């Protein structure tokens, strides 16, 4: 146990055109999360966000009327930061650096800068990241989907997986989104036929293997478990939180390892989560696995220990990852179905599952697992009732 | 209107081949020499009787790409009659308002080489009418005619000629900058002190791999320190330039600046033990497999930047990439080529007429373009090569005053038979893209 708990969650609506600034989305989400926790802006002394977020901690603090901050931090590596923001908050609370920390991510990722388009400036940065990207972007490997497709092809080649195996994830996500009124794809499920008929984005990935682009904001309030017990919501204890980066790591292009069929950084996260929480994959009631692209959900299941190498296609078959199955995944609809808020909306769903308030509630009292962005240095959480 | 035109076309197609029309002259050395002076293919089997006698041909032959020259109607003779299949479909389309014309494809197949002295005849038949279609130039119909050249009763060559007849003023103006491949400004690498050697290498046509001066460990991508021994003394070796596809993708969407889609990208394992990403050029996406052998190639973006790339390995001791050819398209070149191919269409020699017809200048005729494709491939394939077919897709016009640069690569090989993809690019974009099948006897050994 980290000694920290999630006391509040908040979000804006999820849309394709918010019509307002990213800073306003951030502030709105934080306000909702504080109200959920029963805290005020004046109670907050720490803020954590992604290095990719456009809203500085001081700007968010100013707009909210937060006075003094004693802790502020930004986590790098895109969506890999999601669960690590909570880990940062937990560490700040454990060390006494802060008492109430809000983690947030807000973006106009559909109406503003679209991640699905070519990131033409990625190789133009005078940084180690710019030099790294220069082996890929100028060559033409310049979208997230393409970077994942290169790994997915290798996975298919080595393990005999097929495109329809990736489709299983999309169908499950959209089924869950169909019953979630907050989801962009509410009441819009898809079939495997829809998946197989969707157009190529980058072979072997089809349109329905790729998550949507979204506008919206999400915020998470973290305090000590002890304090959370006196607040408005039943506390959700952070049983374990971990980050991981693998040997020879690149951003989305860790192509220079001998093997290219796994996500070693997620394996590093998994070892810590199980070791620190005392749980094992068999204990997990439901999981929110980062799903910007379907193939990485299969690889995560293997890295996290739910099944062996190359066994994910069999593991997810026959409704196993849908509500009612042996391991329901992404009960909010995932990023394919609900919204792409860089994994933060997945943490909120994990909290709802522990509280028992999900629209697709999975019965039981086992721990809930949440993971962050894949193909990049990443992070994860194990959540339990506090 | 559509029904009428399809009905007319069906009636013309039902008549089959036209009457045979005889070439003015037999295949002969003076006309060949005119053509060689204009086009520039210096293979002696066309002109040197002694050398030709000892060649695979056993005597003088004609350049295959000249096939159409022999039956051109010439300067004094009136154009082919309105009653042949081509004339009839053209006049039907003219009458329907599709008065503008542009040739789109010209696919020639050479059944054998022609000897000097052979007397040819030509038949023309209509084989297809498709439309109406909205094209960039305007609303129009595509039709295809089949041309067959006979020596006696033997078909020695055929040509499928595809033409678009369109209604003037119904097209969309082509946005500036879309003529060449892809759109947008190509992405450029951030080059650091640790990586400059690599990019200097691609500019020089070398695929360089970082090596440690102290322990010899190779690595890619490179960095400041040896990851094996920590030495800060990097050197490099030049890769052999071979490898096997480890993984690959076919990018369809969204657009990538400076690239044509679909774009094939491959991660390639080198025998040196490193892995390098590159565009897999000159290949159909369907033919790519993990494990397929490839060879290093270099895609020049500009004088400062050349990107590492890959091509299918072809073996046979021939380079997969053809040596480049740049032609200075002077007015003399345009006129000389037109007359040497006996093409007296005024837009190829009369500037005032060409400008009055809406062109910027006189421009290169199709027969010259075909000849240049043959010359370009011959420069790589050698004097012993046998051309089997040249299929041409026509693009932007190449005006007098422009330059025409040819690039090409082998895209497949079956024994001695090579399929070569050729692109001829001028200032307006791709003037011609072509697929050439050439036999190089003995190269498989």
What does this structure look like?
The complex is a heterodimer of chains A (386) and B (445). With 386 residues, chain A is an alpha/beta fold. Chain A has helices spanning 22-37, 57-64, 82-95, 128-133, 144-159, 163-178, 192-197, 225-228, 264-277, 295-303, 312-315, 334-337, 344-355, and strands spanning 4-11, 46-50, 71-75, 100-108, 200-203, 205-206, 215-224, 236-244, 286-288, 368-371, 378-385. In chain A, β10 and β11 form a beta hairpin. Chain B folds into three domains: 1-27 and 62-173, Hotdog Thioesterase (Thiol Ester Dehydrase, Chain A); 196-312, Beta Barrel (OB fold (Dihydrolipoamide Acetyltransferase, E2P)), CATH 2.40.50.840; 322-445, Hotdog Thioesterase (Thiol Ester Dehydrase, Chain A). In chain B, α1 (2-14) packs antiparallel against α4 (85-95) and α2 runs antiparallel to α6 (331-340). Chain B is globular, with a radius of gyration of 25 Å. The termini of chain B are far apart. At the A-B interface, α4, α5 and β5 of A face β9, β10, β11 and β13 of B. β5 of chain A pairs antiparallel with β9 (242-251) of chain B.
Question: Briefly, what is this?
Answer:
The complex is a heterodimer of chains A (386) and B (445). Chain A contains 13 helices and 11 strands. In chain A, 33% of the residues lie in helices and 17% in strands.
Poorly predicted segments of chain A: none
Helix tally of chain B? 8
Average pLDDT across residues of chain A?
97
How far the N terminus sits from the C terminus of chain A, by CA atoms, comes to: 10 Å
CATH-defined fold name of the largest domain in chain B: Thiol Ester Dehydrase, Chain A
What is the rounded Rg of chain B? 25 Å
Structural class of chain A, by secondary structure, is alpha/beta
By CATH, the superfamily of chain A comes out as Thiolase/Chalcone synthase
DSSP helix fraction of chain A: 25-40%
Query: What percent of the residues of chain B sit in helical stretches (DSSP H or I)?
Result: 10-25%
Overall 3D form of chain B? globular
